[in-house]
Amino acid sequence: MKTKNIFVLGLMTIGTIGLTGCSDSFLEVENPAADPIDQYYKTDAHIQEALVAAYDPLHWPDWGNGSYSPLNICSDIMADDVNPGGATASDMLNWQLMANYQADANNTLPSLWVDEYSGVKRSNDVIKYVDDALAAGNTDITEANANKYKAQARVLRAYYYTNLWKFWGNIPYFEVNLSGNYLGTQYKADEVYDMIIKDLEGAIALNALPMKAEGGQEGRVTKAMAYMLYTELAMYQNDASRYATALKYMQEIINSGSYELYGDFAALWDEANEWCSESIFEVNYNDDNHARGWSSPIAVGGTVLPRLMGPRGWTSGVAGVDLGWGFGTINTSTVALYTANDARLDGTCWNADAAATANGVQYEKAWGDTGYFLYKYLPRPANNKDAGWDVDLNFNNNYRIYRFSETLLNAAELLLRTNGSAATAAQYVNMVRKRAGVSELPTVTIDDILNERHLEFVGEGKRYWDLVRSGKAPQVLVANSAFNRTNGWTASKKYLPIPQGELSADPNLVQNNY
Question: Within its chain, how far is the Cα of 59 from the centroid?
């Protein structure tokens, strides 16, 4: 796979932007001619290259631009399922402080800010190139393709902004790339939400996306992915005015026949079952002789997430598991939530102590060790055996963002919130429970659905946001010695401090009151 820089993009106060290829077949970028930017991006093929670049920052949060910011861990450590872990109480200090609601401008997620704004910038580029080509009367790009490219770019832009909005709330927002001093206008969180969801509505209205990606195109934005993002936005904002539309979108996915629950919950996380019937959107990672390394963190390749989340000092290959760095251990209180017959127990919580005893090995206990690790992203020797560069950074585990089980649980919750069919809501919840092998519920409440989400999505970056949007965070996220948590969550902790580097670059940015 070739990954050649097309050009060197300018610096922005919100991050330094580069350009590399992505990590799946449709994301391959050939080395183009060295034409000026305003001349190069005039053809359909060249605009597709810019679109490839807009997808690339999806891969960066695990480790790119200077620090580790995997979305699942960085969300869940602020909830009640996942410990920061690591070697000591100061290992990944920003995570330790975030988990204890003590983050500050120097201990937050600076790389994630850069990653997501890089995605915004590249998405804006695609939209401009398409509009410029059409304005110039370029017949090389059809109206259908123009709408398809713009729809993808606008959904990607909304996704990148959603991550920024959820973590920081009060952020700069722009749909035309900045120039001059590169200082953008900072908006209040509610204003940002309004702009994101209206842009997403515009992307959906283009009606240019398939419900499901065609074979070989997995990883591209689809209508189902856009619908899931819309629903995530509306539900996190508690925007009741959009619940009916969100419910319509969820039921459209359900009734499309394009997706269904995969029968074996634990097997969902195998490489063979990436992009299975349940998968709506994943970020593709690949270990096939790619070049991602410590000196090239945003190059094409795999992910470091499994290495982060495995047991420290583990004997590689024992129980089919590789060694890790001990981050993201699972709390015993979370393990206790599952009944013994729930398939999600073994498909979520891997008992390292039991495996060590059974195989006569030992491992190094992590900070705040519980003995349990996230099965979903365990490091396995088979998953980086083809890495042609640094094996730590090149596991081939795709990162799951949206699954069909979430579609069902979203629909169930929205039915109850819009006074829809309680029987249908229970049916959707019980589809998820049946797959897990647990008894069905005759009726369901909002709390039942939130509890089901808790069991279904441990370690997937959903729980913290569910607690915040439901108003349960102050009661659930309290000081707890079992979590090494000495502080409780308050409303002021909803948005992380803006990174100091951004404040220094833009004196007009107002720090969040954390």
Answer: 9
